[in-house]
TrEMBL record:
Molecular function terms, GO-annotated: hydrolase activity
DUF5110 domain location: 711-779
Protein name (Swiss-Prot/TrEMBL): Glycoside hydrolase family 31 protein
PANTHER family the record matches: ALPHA-GLUCOSIDASE (PTHR22762)
Length: 819
């Protein structure tokens, strides 16, 4: 071997002398001319092919997929090096989508991918992509080709899409952003953040919903940028002619969702991400919360005051102080020596108990949850395999990896003890995730991501969503056929399948009351209708007027809860004196009267994808002056409210959409399509019912289900023309509705100057407990002479206020009222 080595060395020396070695040495050198890292853009389309509903276009290296999801939804994906990432999304619901027809046509300068409804054009020369309807009207168009930039620190790419911002185009959506409804002129970021006492225009906040709606020339489309990394949106802020969205990692993948109506865009977005689970009826009653109600005597006292004062309430919340040293799934036995008995006693008085659960698990070898998590390796780890540890309420904590399905299943089982104690609902907080001192997890924390792996850069925005998913799925098993109730602070698109949401730690100020109205309208149009604010403000000190005006708005928040910090004054409905208590009681009772209407709105969200809160820009999108309106909104399609948002306000200007509108408190009729000046005494708020509506009403109860409904009151608001209303009912707390054990009633009103007919159709197998409807006829323009129900003469009564009342069998088919 030594001789061979010497021979080799001699040969090398000879090669070096004749220059051969120099060339070999050059070949083995590192590359010195590294390519410059810069943005790269799609270039000329050079090839295309099809695989089922997906059409692929390439510039020779990068590849773009145009996938037909439905007749109205197209997905666009970019692979900078021609290879797509695994097709996986937490946002998408598992649904089968139908497509009627789709095809690709090649023209001289472009390709067109068509469905029955829309056309996607791909320019050959510059790879610009645009979307039109089949009549050729342009809805959305690239301003620049999709582009990307390599990320040398993390791998992968920063990815960008730049669209044309058309003149006067308005933009809506993006979840709980604390800014005006129309996002034009704003640049916003999505990175779930714990933002205590956030300010107007502060960004980012608690939730990531990368979905927006564009409205141009009175017609709408949507863009859903399904990317969980830190994402950005620029709505003509940097350049008035340009709208952009981009991400710090992941794939450029977005869905174009066609309208042309805003409500159609939202419904179709729900076909992708799912609708809200149908909550138990008690969950949409009034809820009372504080950080914190303890000890047990304090909780019992609050409950006692509600019943003594006859103020309706369905739920009392226990914040983190109910735990033993802030250890989740435990009880502080000093404060709550017998929680099971306390919860049972509260339940006997009609109160459900809701408790908080955080993701931080205290590092304590004597704590069973920590031991189980450690033994099974369920906690998140850093890039170098150290456990992710951070300080939150219990002190040093470790955090479950909720992107691991095995961890989610385990987490769901941890609720068993609390469920056996009688806890009815659960509140997931601090799940942005929040960590004291540093804000959140470091970027290098690793996540299992359902087998798709990722760092915290990828998993951060879905962490809270996957936590509440684990909670909801676990509770469904534990409660068996009873519907769970969950609420989460952090969320990503699709969280509505598992939870309600609230807007986080707001401030007791008139500005935050206004912000709350904007945030809830925005959440509702962003797919998360089951939303609310901390009524009265979480921190700070409201006076009686602010608290009461907020309570009035709270009646028309899908989720109605008072919540406040422990270092502030009491926030019960009676805390501000007798006069304010009387008004608060009046409006909480109004909530309970309207529960069958509100429950119907939830059903329409669950089954059909209709948003519960509807801004005026949605209700009448064809009128440009409505695109900036913010203070009026509809709850469902029959009720319009305009909360009082200024101290000492005696009146306000309210716009009413086209049609007849009845002022709720005196049934005065207002003509829509214009603004009206409405008086705002402290015990009223601008509240209107659309003419032609049938509004079901319950008797006032102290909690849902307290009384048997002997007859359901239907308030009939006259208007000429044909109008439809729906009323939904079921057991109120089970999943039997999934087997058609529900009742969906459609009432069709046909109003003429001298007559009114009411037709009813019924669908479903549920049987109501009452036998009759009690109809109140409001606003008839004629004196009633005769009433026939299914051809039989029917008795009618007229009260001192001139209102007509009739009682009819619940299964009537046709009522004819003649003047």
């Amino acid at each position: 071997m030594l001789e061979d080595d010497n021979l080799n060395q001699t040969t090398l020396n000879e090669e070096e002398n004749d220059g051969t070695l120099e060339s070999m040495h050059h070949v083995n050198n590192p590359v010195l001319d590294l390519p410059k890292i810069e943005k790269k853009y799609l270039e000329t389309v050079v090839s295309h092919n099809q695989n089922d509903k997906s059409y692929y276009f390439s510039d020779g290296k990068a590849k773009v997929e145009i996938k037909i999801v439905t007749d109205e939804i197209v997905r666009v994906r970019l692979a900078p090096q021609g290879t797509f990432l695994e097709d996986f999304s937490y946002a998408l619901a598992k649904k089968d989508h139908r497509v009627s027809i789709h095809q690709c046509k090649e023209e001289v300068d472009h390709y067109s991918v068509h469905t029955n409804t829309i056309s996607c054009r791909i320019n050959k020369s510059d790879f610009l992509i645009s979307f039109s309807d089949r009549a050729g009207k342009l809805f959305n168009a690239d301003l620049a080709p999709m582009h990307w930039e390599e990320s040398p620190d993390f791998g992968g790419y920063y990815v960008y899409s730049t669209k044309v911002a058309f003149e006067n185009e308005a933009f809506y959506g993006l979840g709980d952003k604390a800014t005006k409804l129309n996002l034009r002129g704003k640049r916003l970021k999505n990175w779930n953040s714990d933002t205590y006492a956030f300010a107007y225009d502060q960004d980012p906040l608690y939730k990531t919903i990368p979905f927006y709606i564009g409205l141009k020339d009175g017609e709408a489309y949507g863009i859903f940028f399904d990317n969980t990394f830190k994402t950005y949106f620029d709505f003509a802020a940097e350049d008035p002619g340009k709208t952009s969205f981009w991400s710090e990692g992941g794939e450029l993948q977005y869905y174009y969702i066609h309208g042309p109506h805003i409500i159609d865009v939202i419904r179709r977005y729900h076909t992708l991400t799912g609708t809200h689970y149908l909550p138990p009826l008690w969950a949409i009653g009034y809820h009372q919360c504080r950080w914190s109600y303890y000890p047990e005597a304090n909780v019992r006292k609050v409950a006692e005051e509600f019943r003594k004062r006859q103020i309706p309430c369905d739920a009392i919340y226990l914040d983190i102080d109910y735990m033993d040293g802030y250890r989740c799934f435990t009880w502080n036995k000093q404060y709550f020596p017998n929680p099971k008995k306390m919860i049972a006693d509260l339940a006997n008085e009609g109160f459900k108990t809701v408790v908080m659960i955080d993701p931080g698990i205290k590092v304590d070898e004597n704590y069973w949850v920590f031991r189980e998590g450690k033994e099974n390796k369920y906690f998140c780890r850093r890039g170098d395999d150290y456990f992710m540890e951070g300080f939150v309420w219990p002190g040093r904590c470790q955090f479950p990896d909720f992107t691991n399905p095995e961890v989610r299943q385990w987490w769901g089982t941890l609720y068993q003890g609390l469920v056996e104690d009688g806890v009815a609902g659960f509140w997931n907080d601090m799940n942005e995730p929040a960590v004291f001192g540093r804000g959140t997890f470091p970027d290098d924390v690793r996540h299992q991501y359902d087998g798709h792996r990722g760092s915290h850069r990828k998993a951060h925005n879905v962490y809270g969503m996957q936590m509440v998913r684990a909670t909801y799925d676990g509770l469904k098993k534990l409660y068996k056929n009873k519907r769970p109730f969950t609420i989460t602070r952090a969320a990503y698109a699709g969280t509505q399948r598992y939870s309600s949401v609230w807007t986080g730690d707001n401030l007791a100020s008139w500005e935050h009351l206004k912000l709350g109205t904007l945030q809830l309208q925005r959440l509702s149009t962003s797919g998360m209708s089951f939303c609310g604010t901390d009524i009265g403000g979480f921190t700070g000190e409201p006076d009686g007027e602010l608290f009461t005006r907020w309570m009035q708005f709270g009646v028309f928040s899908p989720f109605m809860r008072v919540h406040s910090a422990g270092d502030t004054r009491d926030r019960e409905p009676w805390s501000f004196g007798e006069d304010w208590e009387k008004i608060n009681k009046k409006f909480i009772e109004l909530r309970y009267k309207l529960l069958p209407y509100i429950y119907t709105c939830f059903w329409e969200q669950t089954k059909y994808g209709y948003p519960i809160l509807r801004p005026i820009s949605m209700v009448e999108q064809h009128i440009p002056t409505n695109w900036q309106r913010e203070e009026e909104f509809c709850f469902g399609d029959k009720i319009l409210v305009s909360p009082v948002l200024q101290p000492g306000q005696k009146s306000k200007i309210v716009y009413l959409p086209a049609g007849d509108w009845f002022y709720y408190f005196n049934n005065e009729v207002y003509i829509g399509g214009k603004e009206h000046t409405i008086a705002t005494p402290l015990d009223e708020m601008p509240l209107f019912i659309r003419g032609g509506s049938v509004i079901p009403e319950y008797p006032v109860m102290q909690y849902t289900g307290e009384k048997k409904v002997e007859e359901l009151q239907l308030n009939i608001y006259f208007s000429e023309g044909v109008h439809r209303s729906y009323v939904y009912s079921d057991h109120g707390d089970t999943f039997a509705y999934e087997q058609d054990i529900y009742l969906e009633k459609c009432f069709t009103l046909s109003g003429l100057k001298d007559s009114l007919s009411i037709k009813q159709t019924r669908d479903g197998l549920f049987t109501e407990r009452y036998e009759e409807y009690k109809l109140q006829l409001i606003g008839l323009p004629f004196a009633v002479k005769k009433v026939k129900t299914d051809g039989i003469d029917t008795k009618i009564q007229k009260d001192e206020q001139g209102r007509y009342w009739i009682n009819v069998a619940r299964e009537f088919e046709n009522i004819l009222i003649e003047g």
